[in-house]
Prior knowledge:
Layout: E1 4-5, E2 11-16, H1 61-66, E3 67-70, E4 73-74, E5 105-114, E6 117-127, E7 133-139, H2 149-156, E8 158-163, E9 179-181, E10 184-187, E11 207-211, E12 217-230, E13 233-236, E14 239-240, E15 250-253, E16 280-286, E17 289-294, E18 305-311, H3 313-318, E19 328-335, E20 343-346, E21 348-352, E22 355-356, E23 368-373, E24 378-384, H4 396-405, E25 410-413, E26 422-424, E27 427-428, E28 442-448
Parallel strand pairs: 4-5, 14-15
Antiparallel strand pairs: 1-2, 2-3, 5-6, 6-24, 7-28, 8-26, 8-28, 9-10, 9-20, 11-12, 11-20, 12-13, 12-19, 15-18, 16-17, 16-18, 21-22, 21-25, 23-24, 23-25, 26-27
Amino acid sequence: xxxxxxSRGAAVATAVVVGLLVPVTQQASAVPARVAPPxxxxxxxxxxxxxxxxxxxxxxxxxxxxxxxxxxVALGSTVTAGSxGSxGSxGxxxPVAPAPQAPAITHREERVDTPAGPVTVDxxxxxxxxxxxxxxxxxxxTVGERSSVPAHAQRGGAAAAINGDFFDLGRSNAPAGxxxxxxxxxxxxxxxxxxxxxxxxxxxxxxxxxxxxxxxPRLDRLTLDASxxxxxxxxxxxxxxxxxxxxxxxxxxxxxxxxxRAATLCGSDTDRNAPCAPDRVEVVVRDGxxxxxxPPGGGAIPAGDQVLAGRDQGAAALRRLAVGDRVTVRYAxxxxxxxxxxxxxxxxxxxxxxxxxxxxxxxxxxxRSAAGLTAQGRLILLTADGRESTSVGITLAxxxxxxxxxGAVDGVNLDGGGSSTxxxxxxxVNSPSEDAYRLVPNALGVxxx
Length: 449
C-alpha cells in the first residue's frame, strides 16, 4: 500500500510499536490487503528535499513515545519525524517527571521519491544494547525446510523478522551463504559462481551479517575449516550442508541436511545446469568409524551420522576409505574478525563505514530487503516494495543510501524480489510482490527476552 490519505490528500505513514503475534501456518497463504495501523496525526506532505516537522499539538505524550509520523521524502533527504505531547503548564513548583525511555524496537514506514517514481520503505530499528532484545536466525528443522517469514517469526517468538539469504529456489532450497544459529554452524558458502544473487562489487565468499554473544552486530566473513582424517591421511572438506560442492571437492552433510546429496555433486562452479560429475561417491561415518561407502543418496541423515560426499578428485580420495576405517571429522566456521558469532546470515555488503560500496548497480529496480548496523550497535531491518504502480522498487545503490539515511554505517543486501517480507509484531508490514508469501529457508529475527 502506498500510504494513507489525510484530509488534504497528503500521504501519511506511521511507525507502530505495539501489537501481538498471531498464529500463522507454514504453508504459503494469500497476502491480505495491507491494513493501516492507527494514525497518530497527519503531517502535510513535504516537498522533495525538505524537512518534515512535528505533528499537531493535539497528539498526546503517550502517542509520542509509541508512534512516528513520516511523509513523503526525496531519496537522500533528511527526515525528522515525531509528534509532540501536550504543552499545558503544570506550575513552577510541579515535579518534573523523568523522560520515558525510548522503545527498544520500533517500526516506521516512509514514502521515498526516486527518479523512476515513488517507493514505500519499511524500517525496523532494534537496540541490541538493551538486555531485553537479541537477534537470532530463524530456520526450520533442516537447512532446506522453508516457511513464510510470518511463520518463522511466530515459531521463533520474534517481535520483528525479515527474510534472509538467497537460496537454491526450487531445488534443495538451502541458503547460499554461511549460517549460524545459536552458536552452531549450519551451512558454509557455496562456490561464488553458484550464489544466486545479483553481483555486488567487492563481495566475497563467506560474507555475513553476524551478531556476537554480547549482542554486537558486525559485518564479517566466515570460512569453513574442516577435515576428515583417516588411515590414508587428512582430507580437506570444502563445504558444510551446501547445495553445491566445488568441482574436485568433498562436502560434509549432517543431520541438519535432509535433501538430495547426489544433486550437490552436479553442475560446475559457475553453471548450476552443467552435467553431474561422472565420479561421485559418499562415505558414512558414525561414532568415528566408516559404516558405508556407496553412491550418493538423499533424505534425512540420522542424528550422529556424518556423510562425506565427493566428486571427481574428491570422490577418488574418498574411495580409499573402507568400512571399519577409523575417521575423525572436524569442522568449524572461522570468523575473519576473530569473534565467533552466535547468529549469522549470508549477505553481500553494500554499505561500509558510512559510504555505499563503489560500483553498485543503479539501474535495476526490484523489491529489496537489507539489514544494517549503526555505530551505537543498533540493528536496522529494511524492505522496499516494488513491482507495483504505487511502489516501483529501488536499485542496490539506492538500497545502500536508504540504509545510510536510516542511520546505518555498515549494511548488507539480503534476498529480494518475491522473498522480500517484513514482519513486525505479528503483522506483515510491507507489501510483498507475490500473491502469496514466499516460503524461505531462513529469516533474521529480533526476539524480546
